[in-house]
Specification:
Strand order of the largest sheet: 2-1-3-7-8
Strand content: 5-15%
Order of helices and strands: HHEHHEHEHHHHHHEEEHHEHEH
Number of helices: 15
Structural class: alpha/beta
Length: about 400
């Protein structure tokens, strides 16, 4: 019998088998996830412009701001009302500023906090930061779960638990951003996305847009109100006009069911603008929503405890980094205030918030919302292309005369 040694031992075979499984896992799971993250510009920040329209595009916007911060002297932070309402295109000529909008849809207090942790250390001391809030900012959503618009991060988990967020409410966000687990955490969303894409193609021969899939918070509920038919030639004509504007980064159709009812415009200042093509449809949807409003079942509006803690955490961040902060108040579309009881609750709560900031010496802006009408909004609280200029003129006057001394 030969005494020659085998080229490898059985233990080596087991190690190689394990290594093969690891490689197969990486190819089958990690590589697709890496491609998905790259597409969202989490791994490709040099292509930041192409990511602003998609969640979590605010990461790309923060990266862009870090690299170009000396080009701006005014930035806007907040949630979708900031994203849709604060337009550098409109405001800079009025204020003589160079501004940038660092917000997105559904960036509520729980996800604003970590985004500001990443943004504020890079804001120069001479830059003005406008933070927009409203009474809905202090109330959790129906599900009570923190979304995945921006990563909370493992480092913040103890902090959020102390603030009163149950682990069940932040678990999805934390897991979503752990390497190798994003596709797993988003499996239900991806399945729904594929089903919706398939359904859209079957019904209309078209494809769902990134906006439609990513901005469900800016859409209406299901309704029997039918939009009118707008020809593809008309849609393309309007899109061509908007593309020709220097402020436009890109534009795409927004679908309500299988019909194009408006256009989503993503502007170079970091903001979003909705151009209505079927205005009667949007007014009818607002009227339907208004008909179903109910009086709040309380005599005094209070913040949800964990959202109040996140609010205080954000205020502490502004203090820590010595930010030149201006707080701006946003209201909902006017029909939300037609019930006197609700109107008094909402505005009374925000008066308390205003007193909180004024007691700290923080400038606070509130425009005359009575000058805005329902047709200045494309849904319940997001300004459209008609309302943005109206709001911008009022806001610029308030900021210029009271805060910037211009």
């Amino acid at each position: 019998m030969s005494n020659r040694r085998l080229p490898f031992r059985s233990g080596d075979l087991r190690l190689r088998t394990v290594a093969l499984y690891v490689v197969c896992f990486a190819v089958a799971w990690l590589v697709p996830e890496a491609l998905q993250r790259w597409h969202a510009n989490e791994l490709a920040p040099s292509f930041a412009f192409s990511a602003w329209r998609a969640k979590p595009g605010v990461q790309a916007k923060i990266d862009h701001y870090r690299r170009h911060r000396d080009e701006y002297d005014l930035i806007f932070v907040g949630d979708s009302r900031t994203y849709c309402g604060m337009s550098p295109t409109e405001l800079d000529p009025l204020l003589g500023t160079r501004s940038f909008n660092v917000s997105t849809f559904a960036l509520w207090f729980p996800t604003q906090f970590p985004s500001l942790q990443d943004l504020l250390p890079h804001v120069p001391s001479n830059t003005v930061v406008v933070w927009s809030i409203g009474h809905t900012s202090f109330r959790r959503g129906v599900a009570g779960e923190v979304n995945t618009t921006y990563p909370i991060g493992v480092r913040n988990v103890p902090r959020y638990l102390r603030w009163g967020y149950p682990w069940s409410s932040i678990r999805a966000n934390v897991i979503d951003y752990l390497p190798g687990l994003q596709l797993y955490s988003r499996r239900a969303h991806l399945r729904a996305l594929l089903e919706a894409l398939g359904d859209r193609r079957l019904r209309s021969g078209g494809s769902a847009t990134a906006t439609e899939m990513a901005t469900e918070e800016a859409s209406f509920h299901e309704s029997e109100i039918l939009p009118r038919s707008i020809s593809s030639q008309e849609v393309e004509r309007r899109m061509g006009e908007i593309r020709a504007e220097t402020s436009t980064m890109f534009v795409e159709p927004f679908y309500s069911g299988s019909a194009v009812t408006s256009l989503s415009v993503f502007q170079r200042g970091g903001n979003y603008e909705r151009v209505e093509l079927d205005a009667p449809y949007f007014r009818a949807m607002q009227a339907e929503l208004a008909a179903h409003l109910k009086p709040e079942p309380v005599d005094r509006l209070v913040a949800d405890p964990e959202y109040w803690q996140a609010f205080l955490g954000i205020v502490e961040l502004f203090d820590r980094y010595g930010v030149r902060l201006v707080v701006n108040e946003f209201e909902e579309a006017p029909y939300h205030y037609q019930d006197p009881h609700n109107r008094d609750l909402y505005r009374g709560f925000m008066r308390e918030i205003r007193r909180f900031f004024e007691s700290r010496g923080t400038p606070y802006v509130r425009v005359d919302f009575e000058r805005l009408q329902d047709d200045d909004y494309f849904d319940y609280n997001h300004l459209n292309s008609k309302g943005i200029p109206v709001f911008s003129r009022m806001f610029a006057d308030a900021l210029r005369s009271h805060l910037l001394g211009k």
